[in-house]
Amino acid sequence: MSDRTGNRTIERKQSHVDICLHGEVAFSGKTTGFEKLEFEHNALPEIAFSEVDLSTTFLGRKINAPLMISSMTGGYSEAATLNQRLAEAAERFGIPLGVGSMRQALENSSYRESFAIVRKYAPSVQIFANIGAPEVAKGLTDNEIAIMLDLLEADGLIVHLNAAQELFQPEGNTDFSHFLDRLAIITAKISVPVIAKEVGCGISAAAALKLLEAGVKVIDVAGAGGISWQKVEEIRYTREFGQEKRFSLPALDELLNWGVPTAQCLFDISELKNKYPDFSEIEIIASGGIHSGIDIAKSLALGAQLAASARYILKALHEGALEETIETWLNDLRAVMFLTGSAKTEELRCKRLIIKP
Ligand SMILES: Cc1cc2nc3c(=O)[nH]c(=O)nc-3n(C[C@H](O)[C@H](O)[C@H](O)COP(=O)(O)O)c2cc1C
Fold first, then answer.
1. Does the global pTM surpass 0.85?
2. If you take atom 3 of ligand 1, which residue's CA is the nearest one?
3. Please, is 36 exposed, middle or buried when counting C-beta atoms within 10 Å of its C-beta (0-12, 13-18, 19+)?
4. 286 CB within 6 A, ligand 1
5. How many CB atoms lie within 10 A of CB 328?
6. How many H-runs (helices) and E-runs (strands) does the chain carry?
7. Would the CB of 197 count as within 6 Å of ligand 1?
8. What is the Cα–Cα distance from 82 to 73, expressed in whole angstroms?
9. Band of the pLDDT at 11, cuts 50, 70, 90?
10. Cβ atoms of residues 121 and 140 within 8 Å
């Protein structure tokens, strides 16, 4: 994610894709929490299935379904193909899309096309630029911010918070000092909204509050229960340094599975909207382990505006089943909306979730 220089960055971004597709990177013993919840059945839906309308809004624009393709890649030649395919799917389904960290685009102009291609193939949907918290903490110039936004004609800037990933990354940058102050300067300066997201350890209510006070408009929780980026980086570390130990065995297990589950983040951050009138308009993205339309439906009922997915989308793309996968997820969502009597996504947001017996 956060990129430093040249070949090392390219190697990292390529191996992230490879490890996410083929490595053992799921949390062990920790889940998103969605599986513990179910909707109360409505025996009287009083709507026709054909009436179910998945469209909603995100940051003031209509989108065709409450789903987003999460930030993944860019910055090396093969990434252009991945980004093109993701962009084509986003355009076809009329849903937003994020690109991977753009540090490489700032350091090396040769790979800018691998990001810019997204706008070419997704001319009408919202596209979000992406940069890591360590780069924000170090300080981004106005010119660097302009390069990222202009390359994509971006609808917003995603800043990813990835302390645990950087901690495990062999070449990680673990200096997050001054981040909030520098973030506040950016949110005050740029004309598009800033989204703060984690990458799989989740955002607590306390952290979300600080981010909102710094001017962030959307929180993407990217909670625990999907992919553990600590595990991804531990695989890279072991490839580089063999079995050299950094942590005691019991601590390693806990650190590799560190984070707040996705459903818990949604529950806690939604409460903030009720508690702080100033933040009642903020939007929440549910991500971290989303892999069906049932997860999307539960996300909305827990207060998210939409749900986002990275790894399962990448897997579907790799298996040649990207569009089919998205289509089935949307059908799952239509089924839940019908069975809860929700013709519109707004109605689903008020439906009751119960804890499974
Ligand atoms: C191959 C890959 C590369 C990623 N690179 C980035 C990145 O550059 N910036 C970022 O914010 N998140 C990145 N992510 C994290 C995802 O956007 C997402 O937050 C995380 O994987 C959790 O969602 P998931 O369980 O649906 O995968 C990446 C994910 C994958 C699978």
1. yes
2. 72
3. middle
4. no
5. 14
6. 16, 12
7. yes
8. 8
9. confident
10. no
Which residue owns the Cα nearest ligand 1 atom 28?
72
Ligand 1 contact, 299 CB (< 6 A): no
Cross-strand bridge partners of residue 219: 196, 284
245 φ, ψ (degrees, to nearest 5): -90, 135
Cα 340 to ligand 1 centroid, rounded to whole Å: 31
What residues contact 163, with CB distance under 8 A and at least 6 apart? 133, 174, 176, 201
Q: How far is the CA of 100 from the centre of ligand 1 (A)?
A: 8
Other CB atoms within a 10 A radius of the CB of residue 51 amount to: 11
CB 93 within 8 A of CB 65: yes
Tracing tokens 């220089």 back to the chain, one arrives at 5
Could you count the other beta carbons within 10 Å of the beta carbon of residue 49? Answer: 12
- Cβ–ligand 1 distance for 20 under 6 Å, the answer yes
Distance CA 9, CA 79 (A): 12
Contact 314 CB / ligand 1 (< 6 Å)? yes
CA 115 – CA 98 distance, rounded (Å): 10
Ligand 1 atom closest to 74 (CA): 8
Contact 82 CB / ligand 1 (< 6 Å): no
Which residues on neighbouring strands pair with residue 224, listed in sequence order? 261
DSSP string, 212-223: HHTT--EEE---
Distance CA 83, CA 114 (A): 7
pLDDT tens, 277-317?
999 999 999 999 999 999 999 999 999 999 999 999 999 99
How far apart CA 297 and CA 128 sit, in angstroms, is 23
Q: Give the whole-angstrom CA distance, residue 134 versus residue 162.
A: 9
Reply yes or no on whether the pLDDT at 4 is more than 50.
no
Atom from ligand 1 closest to the CA of residue 314:
31
Q: Is the pLDDT of residue 243 over 90?
A: no
Using the structure block, give the residue that is written with the tokens 């190697």.
11
Tell how far the Cα of 275 is from the centroid of ligand 1, in angstroms. 30
Give me the domains of the chain, ranges plus CATH numbers: 6-355 (3.20.20.70)
Distance (Å, whole) CA 107 – CA 104: 5
**How many A from CA of 219 to the centre of ligand 1?**
15
